[in-house]
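pinging the channel bc i need a second pair of eyes. not urgent but kinda urgent?? the chain im working w is below, pasted from the shared doc
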Amino acid sequence: MDPQTPAPGSTVEFCYRHPSERTGVHCTRCGRPICTNCMIPAPVGYQCPECVAEARRAFREGPARRARAATGISITAAMLGLLVAIFVAEVATGGGVGGFTGQLRGSLVQWGVMFPPAVADGEYYRLFTAMFLHASLIHLAFNGWALWIFGTFVEREFGPVRWLVIYLVGGLLGSAASYAFGSVEQASLGASGAIVALFGAFIAYNLKRRDTAISRAYLQQAIFILVINLVIGFGAGGAIDWRAHLGGLVGGFLLGGIFDAVGPFRTQAARIAGVLGVLAIVVGLVAWRTADLRSLPL
């Protein structure tokens, strides 16, 4: 039987990817209706392009997942352990205890907080090191909780290598946004920019799958979290660096879409170009802010 012709008595539906195309065929993996342009032969029946892409990604990530299962190590847990170890070292050297309101204290300067005048003076490493520092136990606890929740999801769906790229590149965009648009006297530190990047990737992943009930539920939760963070961020009197959060969110969302093959990012070369594009935004923001600060009178 021609797959374009529905079986007798079957209900004619429309392809979920091409709403104008009538069909009576469903993807054997997800069950959604697909037209002849979307039908990819499978061992049993046909599958849609999205399910085939997910299966291929799962196959590529299989060795990494098996290795993680054998060793019992996840990159999310490893990063959480690293953040805790760095905080303990901060406390041991007299920094990172109590609140943090932008005033440089104790050894936090030496540990590498993001301080705009220092960055403009050539200490660009602070954009990176600030992502691993925390000012208090509560600060670390909140970030650690969010890292575990969203980091576990992103690691499972994207794999550890892409997780690390989202965390580091998205976090750098958060640091760059804080540096570019924050007050020149405002110091900043914390892993929240990088963690919000994981949250952005979480949103991108579920937005692509918003036709499923579970992804719609996740997106509703994400909207709620965003609203709460906006209220807290703008009402905290400068104690929370909402610019770093926004930069990390945008970076993570872009990287999540890039790695999930949204739009033109369906080849490895295109995905590498996309990541380099996000890094170019980081470099552009830092260069612009540095030139602006260096032009100020001493």
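so The chain has two domains: 1-73, 74-294. and Residues 1-73 form one domain. — does that match what u expected or am i reading it wrong
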